[in-house]
Amino acid sequence: MAYSITQFENNLTNSLVALDNNFTTFGALVPIPCGIAGTNTLTLTQNATGLVPTPTIAGYSTDMMFTGIAAGTNTGPVQATVGSAGLLNVYKDTRAGPVLLTGNEIIIGNAISLLYDGALNSGAGGFHLISSTATSGAISPISVQINGNSTLTNLLSGTVSITFTVAPGWTSQDQAFSITAGLASALPAVGDFMLVNPPSIAGAGISYAGYVSTVASLSSVASVATINIRQVNSASASLASNSGIYRYAAMRTVP
Predict the structure, then answer these.
(1) Are 115 and 63 in contact (CB under 8 A)?
(2) Among residues 117, 92, 106, 78, which one has the least CA distance to residue 221?
(3) What is the Cα–Cα distance from 72 to 62, expressed in whole angstroms?
(4) Which of 8, 73, 167, 207 has the most other CB atoms within 10 Å of its CB?
(5) Picking from 22-31, 61-70, 129-138, 150-159, which range would have the lowest pLDDT averaged per residue?
(6) Which of 149, 122, 83 is nearest to 220 (CA)?
(7) Sequence-separated contacts (24+) of 41-47 with Cβ below 8 Å
(8) Residue 137 and residue 92: Cα distance in Å, rounded?
(9) What is the chain's mean pLDDT, rounded?
C-alpha cells in the first residue's frame, strides 16, 4: 500500500500517543532490566532512567521476563515482586517439575532472570528462576549413575554434636537430632542408607549406626527429618563413649 503526503497532512490523530503505546507493548514482550534488592524477599525495580528506561508494568502476564543482578544469596524459599505488581513465589525447574527454592540457588553478584507463569502455585502465579549459578564449580544433576550401576538420587551430609553416656556391656543407646528444609525432597528419607563417623577412634567393642526415624511437614514451606545415631557396645564390660562432633551422610539409591 502506498501512502501520500496528504494522508499524513490531513490526519489529526495524535500519532505520538499511538507510537508510545507501541513502544510500551513491545517493552513488555522483551526481557525487562531491573534493579534487585533483598535476599529471600526480592523487590525488582524497573529501570526508569538512563540509557535503557523501561515502561512501567501494571500487572504480570505469562512469559513476561525480568532480569537483574542478585543483591544477596538466598538462604531458603524466595518470593519476589516487580514494583507493586504483587509478591509471588519463586520456583526452580527440576525433572519432577517446578519446586520452591531451598537456599543458594541465587548467588550475590550473579545475573538472574524471573519468568512469570500464571499456572504456578495452583493458578495463583509465580516466577521460574533462570540462572547459570554454579557454586565452587559444583554441578547439580537430579541423579548420578556410574558405570551403569545403581543410580544415586540423593546425598545429604552434615555434622552434629552428640554426647553419649557410658555404655554398659551388651547395650545400645540412641541420640536423635533434627534437620529442616524448605521441601521434604531436600531431606533424607526413612530407609536411606546412613553412614556415621565418630569424632575419634571408638574403643574395641563400640560401633555406630544411623537411621532416619521420621520425616514430617512443618508447614507449606518447611519439613523436618529426625535422624538417630545409635551407639552399640558389643563387649561385656562398660565402655566410655565417644562424645563430640559426628559426621553423617544419608544416601538414596535406585537399583
Answers:
(1) yes
(2) 78
(3) 26
(4) 167
(5) 22-31
(6) 122
(7) 41/78, 41/79, 41/80, 41/87, 42/78, 42/79, 42/80, 42/81, 42/90, 43/80, 43/81, 44/68, 44/80, 44/81, 44/82, 44/83, 44/114, 45/82, 45/83, 46/82, 46/83
(8) 19
(9) 84
Contact 47, 55 (CB under 8 A): no
The residue whose grid cell reads 558405570 is 147
The predicted structure's pLDDT at residue 134: 45
State the Cα–Cα distance between residues 23 and 1, nearest whole angstrom: 24
Under 8 Å between Cβ of 246 and 195: no
Q: Kindly report the CA angle at 182 between 176 and 187, in degrees rounded to 5?
A: 45
Confidence band of 235 (pLDDT split at 50, 70, 90): very high
Q: What pLDDT digit, counting tens, does each position of 61-77 carry?
A: 999 999 999 999 999 99
| Residue 156 grid cell | 545429604
